[in-house]
Amino acid sequence: MGSRTPAQGGAILDTTTEDRLRQREPLQRLRLGLYSYLLLWAATLLGIRTGLLQADTPHWLLFGAALLVTLLLALQSRYCPGRDPSTLAFPHLAVATALVSALMYYANEVRDMMMFCYFIIMTFGLFTLRLRQLILLAALILCCAGLLDALEWQRQADNKALLPTLAQLSLLIGGLAWFIYIGAHLRLFRRRERQQQLRLAAQQQHLEATNQRLRDALEALEQMAIRDPLTGIYNRRYFMERLHQEVARCQRHPRPLHLAMLDLDHFKRINDQYGHPAGDRVLEQVAEILGSLLRRTDLLARYGGEEFALLLVDLSDSGARQVLARLQQRLADPAVQAILPQPVTFSAGVAAWRPNDSAEQLIERADQALYAAKHAGRDRVASADD
Questions:
Q1: Residue 226 lies in a domain
Q2: PROSITE patterns of this UniProt entry (predicted)?
């Protein structure tokens, strides 16, 4: 997918859509020019019939050449979509200038009135050309007008008055200068608008980045609030919240729920013999091993010290015992014991939820089963229902 860029009104446009719109713009402009040529051709035919234009006006040649150039520009725009639209607009307006100048050469009484066609061409250039191209277009119009006056003086040197010609030429120069002045200010406004859009886009990106950092920070704070800082598993506070939720859910819709309390055997020896840093590493490794063997729906938390709490959902009594037996077998694996300072085992007490049991009652029964497992020799699982 293309990147996204800000548009007016706060809307966001995909860059591929924006490029597609930019490619359509020169084609639409050329289509407008085609319609203008056809309308001007019809007016030319009417002028020839009414005598406003000379009967020998080569309209077929003039408009045929203009339409051919328009077709070539359309093909170039179609197969070279990456070009700047202004590079296609300038030759189109230059051809229009040459066409209007040729028609003015064959005009009779309406030649002075047709001078306003130059201003219409400049109006199109005002919104499509760059400032340098607009100046070149004005210079081209002025050259064409000067050439027409020169040809007119050559044909009617005796009957041509100098003052009206100079006045007309001065009016044309003033009008062209006005268009250039307006074009310069228009491009200045567009540049400022573009800079403002870029600033708004930069501010929007900055705000999005800031919001993302805030979301990441909030997520990190949330994880810090529910995770044990040493082992990375859930802490006791979050475990109690989930336990109350699961008990409440079972009270509404009864289903199997087991709570197991696990305590590492003789963990104090590890701290005394190897130091507390070694004991912390053992807790980290045991938590990682136990968590890797559980289902996504199971919940493992550090209940306190070397004691862990395990919440098993939708498992039978035998299924809960099998989970705990699998955890014991994994800890007894020689490959696991090799990375620990000394062999580590755990005692566990498991209790199944009973109707009308509260979370505290379930914890109390699991604790009693844990004490029973320890008194029976450790490294075993005791059930509160036995």
A1: no
A2: GGDEF (PS50887)
Whether 218 is in a domain gets the answer no
280: left (phi over 0), alpha (psi -120 to 50) or beta: alpha
Q: Where are the alpha helices (DSSP H) in the chain?
A: 15-50, 59-79, 85-105, 116-128, 131-155, 162-226, 236-252, 267-274, 276-292, 317-331, 334-337, 359-375
Query: Do 309 and 301 contact (CB within 8 A), yes or no?
Result: yes
0.85 exceeded by the pTM?
Answer: no
Which bin fits 298, alpha (ψ -120 to 50), beta or left (φ > 0)? Answer: beta
Percentage, residues of the chain above pLDDT 90: 42
Q: Are residues 82 and 191 in the same domain?
A: yes
pLDDT tens for 284-338 read 999 999 999 999 999 999 999 999 999 999 999 999 999 999 999 999 888 888 8
**Taking Cα atoms as reference points, which of 385, 356, 365, 384 lies closest to residue 250?**
356
Are residues 292 and 169 part of one domain?
no
Counted residue by residue, the chain has a size of 386
Say yes or no: 289 and 197 in one domain.
no
Here the CATH number for the domain that contains residue 340 is 3.30.70.270
Q: Are 256 and 352 in contact (CB under 8 A)?
A: yes
Catalytic annotation on 219?
no
Q: How crowded is the C-beta side of 87, counted as CA atoms within 13 Å?
A: 7
Query: Does residue 245 share a domain with residue 168?
Result: no
Structural domain for 151, as ranges: 4-206
Tell me, yes or no, whether 172 and 243 share the same domain: no
Give me the catalytic one of 193, 306, 360, 364: 306
Query: Is 257 within 8 Å of 313 (Cβ atoms)?
Result: yes
Residues 262 and 134 in one domain: no
Whether 223 maps to a domain, the answer reads no
Listing DSSP states for 75-119 in one string gives HHHHH-TTS-HHHHHHHHHHHHHHHHHHHHHTBSTTTTGGGHHHH
Q: Measure the CA–CA gap between 157 and 150, rounded to whole angstroms.
A: 10
Residue pair 351/258 in contact (Cβ under 8 Å)? The answer is yes
Within 13 Å of residue 81, how many CA atoms lie on the same side as its CB?
A: 10
322 and 270: one domain? yes
Q: Are residues 188 and 273 in the same domain?
A: no
Nearest to 137 by CA among 97, 190, 164, 174: 97
